[in-house]
Amino acid sequence: MIHHSDHGSNYLSVQYTDRVIELATLQWVSWWSTQRLHSELSYRTPVEIETEFNQTTKTL
To answer: Does residue 11 have a pLDDT over 90?
Structure first.
């Protein structure tokens, strides 16, 4: 048995919980934007579409 004198207080901390949620959300948004293929975007990622758009508008 391992005894922790803090009784897991870091898991009860609102700031700790908020930070965990924030990091998980950032990871999900990163995955959604850079890896997930979207059928409405011809099975490309939003980042690919944005890059293409930026390259196209630079030449105008």
So the answer is: no
Position 9 scores a pLDDT of 67
Residue 44 phi, psi dihedral angles, 5° rounding: -120, 170
Query: Which amino acid belongs to residue 47?
Result: V
Whether residue 14 contacts residue 7, with contact meaning beta carbons closer than 8 Å, is answered with: no
Q: Is the pTM of this model over 0.85?
A: no
Calculate the CA 6 to chain-centre distance.
30
What interhelical angle do 14-34 and 46-58 show, nearest 10? 60
**Helix/strand/coil percentages in the chain, nearest 5:** 70, 5, 30
Residue with tokens 């207080």: 9
Is the confidence at residue 38, as pLDDT, over 80? yes
Measured distance CA(23)–CA(34) in Å, rounded? 16
